[in-house]
Amino acid sequence: MQLGVCYYPEHWPEQMWAEDFKQMKSLGISHVRIGEFAWSRYEPSPGLYQWEWLERALDQAHAGGLKVILGTPTATPPHWLIKAHPEVLPLDHEGKVRGFGSRRHYCFSSKVYRELAREIVERMAQRFGSHPALSAWQTDNEYGCHDTIISYSKAAQLGFQSWCRERYGSIEALNEAWGNVFWSMEYQDFQAIELPMLTVTEANPSHRLAFWRYSSDQVRAFNQMQTKILRKYSPTLPLVHNYMGFFTQFDHFDVAEDLDIASWDSYPLGFLDQSWESPRVKETYLRTGHPDHTAFHHDLYRGVGRGRWWVMEQQPGPVNWAPHNPAPLPGMVRLWTFEAFAHGAELVSYFRWRQAPFAQEQFHAGLHLPNGDRDQASFEVEQVHAEIKKLQAHMKPGPSNAKIALVFDYPSEWILRVSPQGKSYDPLRWSMEVYAALRSFGQNIDIVPAAADLSPYRCVVLPNIAHCSTAFLKRLKAFQGSLVIGPRTGSKTAELQIPQELPPAGLQDLIPLRVRRVESLPPQIKMPLSIHQEECFASFWREEVETKLKASAEFADGWGALYEHRNVSYLSACFDFETLRVIFKKILEDAAITLSKSAAGPGLRLQERHGLSFAFNYGPEAVTLSNKRSYLVGSAHLKAAELAIWKTEEGEVL
Ligand code: GAL
User: What is the pLDDT of residues 160-169, one digit of tens each?
Assistant: First the structure.
């Protein structure tokens, strides 16, 4: 459990650095992330490198006993570069250039940019790769932020054409895979392929999916270009990228294969304001963030990092970029930090040390005000540090011991996003709602890719894996535990066509049913039904299923809602949270998973890690934990934004 902070030496007079580093240390901060946007100071004009200032910053951080995470600056190409090579700029879906003056103004497909980025990364790695202050490298910054994965540039078109040639082999195969005979969309050769933009009505979904796949591959290639260089000059240092929340536009599992640690940038209040949650939920958790949104991402990125993960940027106060930017309740920065540790984070790093008095993020809090005075979060960080010291003696570090796995698959996400069928169906939302229901029983959850080993789990849930590969199907067949298959799973081929055998395609070997008809519903429609004698509701999505199995629950019109066969359950609708709880309660109990009795409070969340149990109160009301423990941190009585930590007892049910 280590603490870090993001720091921009180029924003402050050099005389301040040593004192800043000293203060970081005195708050208990061990890591400082530096350098990810400073290209215009590294290379103020083409080929003129000025590394001395960064060297002095690294030396001083080192002298101050801090470990540095050094970022490559490729998210912010300087103005001279754009002037000399305007073709590196990305193009939006209307073909308009996205210009200089903020950040991420580059196209992943640009070969010219890749070469220029390679050059700066190599120079930087050469110069600092073995600097004793360095403890890790961060590649770029937030791939995809500001909607920048997809660019409709000429370079992207050329790149996509050769990618298609490689994937499909012949133009006939491509036409077949995309179903281009429909509306005379057939191409005669690969050079003729257009980008899926500016079409009169919807572009062919298979075409769009292919372009998303291609774009994801460009992110991996761009990142890999950097990791190869960084490994050459820093063979022993871990490589990390800072991913984002609520963001699925490239395959993170894929990119992570070239990295050692996953990290993500956690802004709970901004995310909630931008999310699909109802006005009532947004009001309840206005100053705490949603109790499950952050946890979902922690578990996802632990999976992406193959067990090793950090929070690279933790919200420290109000931010600047959401539609509304409330201040967190006092105590929330501490709570968010411990929630990350409770999910296995090795490091939580705050964004940023000192609020910037200039440019775009003036309204973004830091640990300090622009004048250097301490802001609320710096006191909380100090408290966290003292509490970590107390906990250390009681920790038994170890891997996640979750009994439940939720499978997350980026290409399936894209299939459902490209072709949602109903405006209100959001694949990420559905995965997160399934997660929240499972978590409400006080269970730790692993979020894993389709390639994961499923044998450690008692229950595996596929919320919506639209396409299941043959290898995945094989692993699912071998899985002995309880398997829960959500609607739309197995509903498309890899190229986004309806499978010949009808959905859920190969999963029919596991549960004998076929989906004949689907419907999407507007958000105000709630379809009532009874499940296990409880009043329940479906929303957004239903499927009509053909099967000899008797449905375990049915709607009034005869459409089934839940089917069970041996160890497999199939949900043929999307349900609300309470209904999911009714369904999962029985499934988890049947899978011999003991459910928590104390997890019921609406804002109370429980987690177990490293031999410690954690309780967090995100709700506005105080809660009292029913168990009698000797608490290492906090007490049984938790006001809003408070937490408690105690030693997990053998066989304890939280
Ligand atoms: C992140 C980004 C940071 C900073 C922060 C503000 O998306 O990586 O550089 O802009 O947001 O919340």
Answer: 999 999 999 9
